[in-house]
Amino acid sequence: MMGIIDFLQNNNPFLSSREGDFIPLDQESNTEKPYLGPPLIILYAVPKSLDMEELSDMVCDGMPNRKVVNFISTDENNHGGDYDDDVVMIRRLEGMDENGAGGDELLDLSVEDALNTLVATAAATSPPPTTTTTPSTMGVTSSSSSSTASSVGSSRCCPVLYFSGVSNKEMMDTYRIIANEIYTETNGVYWPACAKLVPPAMNKSMRQVLSEISGDHAEAMKQQGTTEEETQ
Asked: Which of 61, 93, 197, 203 could staple 104 via S-S, CB 3.0–4.6 A?
């Protein structure tokens, strides 16, 4: 599946057309601390058949120097610059429907407010919720087995792994592991998108950002499929 990652890095007209909204998925850049935002991975529309224990193990494999925790110690004056660099949180967000409606209520907050809310809610809850209160509705877009459809729900959004407060290397190592599992769980229907928090996204709604990432990634995957067919 490395070919998919290489394609998305080097041949994605959708990301390049939005310069400043995204960053290159480059392991060597972004090595200086502090990283932007709390150390958090948002799993948007990830198949519900992958439980939090499995996902935590995958994150630990991708970020061996960090520990998956239920909440992050912070204070009102933090602004994302003083988080511990040996921990990371994981949170699920329920996917939107094919019209961009529904999904987790946090989607209607700005990215900055959504991240702060996830951290604050986790700190105030013991233990914090590890799944959404409503079953995920992420689904598949092509014909597949009934077991696959059951495991991922009924909407049409592409899964997104949205990273905050970690290095690019940690992001990419973790993305490769989880992406392979999602690809397997959906019988090859979905290879998830990967994105990282950048300043221009902070004031946008989480719904807009994830919708753009998910939609652009799905289009890029279609383009890759067309390219492969033409070369056969």
From this structure: 93
Per-residue model confidence as pLDDT tens digits over 174-189: 999 999 999 999 888 8
Contact 161, 43 (CB under 8 A): yes
Say what the pTM is.
0.74
Across the beta sheet with 87-93, the strand order is 67-68, 87-93, 40-44, 160-164, 193-196
- Using the predicted structure, report yes or no on whether residue 83 has a pLDDT greater than 70: yes
Q: Which helix (H) or strand (E) holds 212?
A: helix 206-231
- E-only strand ranges, 75-149: 87-93
- Residue (of 182, 223, 157) closest to 13 by Cα position: 223
H or E, element range at 196: strand 193-196
Question: Would you say residue 144 has pLDDT above 80?
Answer: no
Phi and psi at residue 163, to the nearest 5°: -105, 145
Tell me the C-alpha to C-alpha distance, in Å, between residue 210 and each of 57, 109, 203: 24, 12, 13
Are the CB atoms for 48 and 181 separated by under 8 Å?
Answer: no
Rounded to 5 degrees, φ, ψ at 22 are -130, 165
Residues 6+ positions from 21 with CB-CB distance below 8 Å: 198, 200, 201, 212
